[in-house]
Amino acid sequence: MNSTSVPLKKQLQIFYKDFPKSLLRHLNFFDLLCTSIGINIFFLGLAALSNIRRWRKRGKSDQDFFLPFILAWIGSFLWTVYGFLVTNWQIELVNGYLTAANSVVLIALYIYRIRKKSLAAVIFITGLAAGSLLLLLTQLPNITSVHLVGSICSCMQIGCACTMLYMIVLAIKKKRIDFIPFLPVAQIFNIEFQVTLYSIWIEDFYLLISNGIFMTIDGLVFLLFFIYPSEPTVKEKAESLI
């Protein structure tokens, strides 16, 4: 009996019955890990783009310090270049998406900025440095370029992670952690944990060292939410109203 003699409804029932088992047979842990990272990075990009709506509602972006947005763009751009150098399309894809999202955010940050001079100067210097780096990489052997960009990426990410040590010290001193939002910390920890597993799987030293350290420090911040209160006490709320 060929498939044409089976009614369409019956074919669909067979397909939907066998689809989950067939999918699990063809998928492995690495595929699921990559898919999960991709989904998480997608929502991370959307979270960055949500700043635009906030600035549009306010009518200006001057209340937000521009340096974190510049650093976010530099980080995603450098990891995209690194992915290209090591011919890893997965690193290229997720970081290329983040670079595009961060670029849109930077453009909006500039458009809604009332005092544009400082931001324009920093964007110009950043673009000039990025262009100079790309020009330099064309003159270097590929292996040298990989180590150079990988080292810069790792140092930048570890440096950003170390800034969270101040938050940890502050939380321990105050014995509360209500000054840090829980959701971004949990989201970043989840992503860093998965990327660390990914870096172990593909045996990438630079991904492992940078994301492993970031995951560890962010994990300590995450742990503090289960030790100290994440909301002001009733007494503190009352005092703030006086």
Helix/sheet category: mainly alpha
Helical element count? 10
Q: Characterize the biggest β-sheet.
A: none
The figure for the number of domains is 2
Low-confidence stretches: none
What is the alpha-carbon Rg in Å? 23 Å
Sequence of secondary-structure elements: HHHHHHHHHH
Give the fraction of residues assigned to helices.
over 70%
CATH architecture of the largest domain: Up-down Bundle
Secondary structure: number of strands: 0
The top-level CATH class of the largest domain is: Mainly Alpha
Strand content: under 5%
End-to-end C-alpha gap: 83 Å
CATH topology of the largest domain: Monooxygenase
Shape: globular
Mean pLDDT across the residues is 84
Oligomer: single chain
Verbal overview:
InterPro entries: SWEET (IPR047664), SWEET_rpt (IPR004316). GO terms for molecular function: sugar transmembrane transporter activity. Its main location: membrane. This protein is mainly α. The chain has two domains: 30-139, Up-down Bundle (Monooxygenase), CATH 1.20.1280.290; 142-230, Monooxygenase (Up-down Bundle). It has helices at 8-26, 29-58, 67-85, 89-111, 117-139, 142-162, 164-174, 182-202, 205-224, 234-241. Helix 2 runs parallel beside helix 4, helix 6 packs parallel to helix 9 (205-224) and helix 8 runs antiparallel to helix 9 (205-224). The model has no long low-confidence stretch (mean pLDDT 84).
What attributes characterize this protein structure?
242 residues, 10 helices, Monooxygenase, single chain, mainly alpha, 81% helix
Q: How would you sum up this structure in a few lines?
A:
The protein has 242 residues and is an all-alpha fold. It folds into 2 domains: 30-139, Monooxygenase; 142-230, Monooxygenase, CATH 1.20.1280. Helix content is 81%, strand content 0%.
